[in-house]
From TrEMBL:
Residues 49-84, 85-120, 122-157 form the EF-hand domain. Transmembrane segments: none annotated. This is EF-hand domain-containing protein. InterPro entries: EF-hand-dom_pair (IPR011992), EF_Hand_1_Ca_BS (IPR018247), EF_hand_dom (IPR002048), Recoverin (IPR028846). One of its GO terms (molecular function) is calcium ion binding. Signal peptide: none annotated. Keywords: Calcium, Metal-binding, Repeat. Gene3D superfamilies: EF-hand. The keyword Glycosyltransferase does not apply. SMART domains: EFh.
Length: 169
């Protein structure tokens, strides 16, 4: 599966962080990235364009919820982002899409996601059906277990969640 980020890569990530922080004239810059800086970085470094998703990625990286991404959060976040095991990436995608943080991806959250996903549903196919297929216990929401089972059965699903993972260049 994925391998850990090695020391050299960590040094590169820290260097990138320092460079980006130095370029910013932001008052937070001493501490790290604020949301806008982070968004610019996701856009320029990974080609992300969806604001809602970038926002979610920010929250997923910002472990201590101080609205600022420290160098540690940056390195930890990116190591899952770039090198995570399947397990870690599934967990990460789940967190990104669990919009209200209740440990479930609801139907509405799922719609948001499918609406933005690369897997545009063929128009005659009801996205509701797509969700039913994933919702193993048919309670109208996806638990992490549902989600993980679905992704392990169907690796393409992670592609559908692609907007929150970088284009691996």
């Amino acid at each position: 599966m994925g391998r850990r980020v090695n020391k050299r890569e960590v040094e590169c990530l820290i260097k990138l962080f320092d460079t980006l922080v130095a370029e910013s004239s932001n008052r937070f810059a001493a501490v790290g990235f604020d949301r806008n800086m982070f968004r610019d970085t996701l856009h320029s470094a990974f080609g992300m364009t969806d604001d809602m998703i970038m926002d979610r990625v920010f929250r997923t990286f910002d472990r201590d919820n101080d609205s600022c991404i420290s160098v540690v959060e940056w390195v930890e976040g990116l190591s899952v982002f770039l090198r995570g095991t399947l397990e870690e990436r599934i967990k990460y995608c789940f967190e990104v899409y669990d919009l209200n943080g209740d440990g479930y991806i609801s139907r509405e959250e799922m719609f948001q996601m499918l609406k933005n996903s690369l897997l545009k549903q063929p128009s005659e196919e009801d996205p509701d059906e797509g969700i039913k297929d994933l919702d193993y216990d048919h309670d109208g929401k996806l638990s992490f277990m549902d989600f993980e089972k679905a992704v392990r059965d169907e690796n393409l699903l992670l592609e559908a969640f692609g907007p929150c993972l970088p284009d691996i260049k």
